[in-house]
Design goal:
83 residues, alpha+beta, Arc Repressor Mutant, subunit A, 3-stranded antiparallel β-sheet, 4 helices, 3 strands
């Protein structure tokens, strides 16, 4: 269900962070992406990924971090012609 270039970049950032034992907030994700957009636009993309079961939101103190679900790995690493 990861469709756009921006969603793929956000997911690659999140999955790379998980590999380094780091989970990101929306603000951190917005600062790290290569394209220029508002934090609100990043939140819309994150909300879409949460709604489709690719990410889950977790509350840590006053922050909300985003963590990938098992479906995220399937959608991100399986090529469309093999799905």
């Amino acid at each position: 269900m990861i469709k756009t270039r921006k969603q793929r970049e956000i997911m690659s950032l999140i999955l790379a962070g998980v590999a380094r034992c780091k989970l990101y907030t929306a603000e951190e994700i917005n600062q790290k992406v290569s394209f220029a957009c508002s934090e609100g636009a990043t939140r819309v993309s994150l909300r879409f990924l949460v709604a489709h079961g690719i990410l889950v939101k977790k509350r840590v103190g006053r922050n909300v971090i985003y963590s990938p679900t098992p479906q995220a790995y399937v959608d991100f690493y399986v090529l469309p012609e093999h799905a």
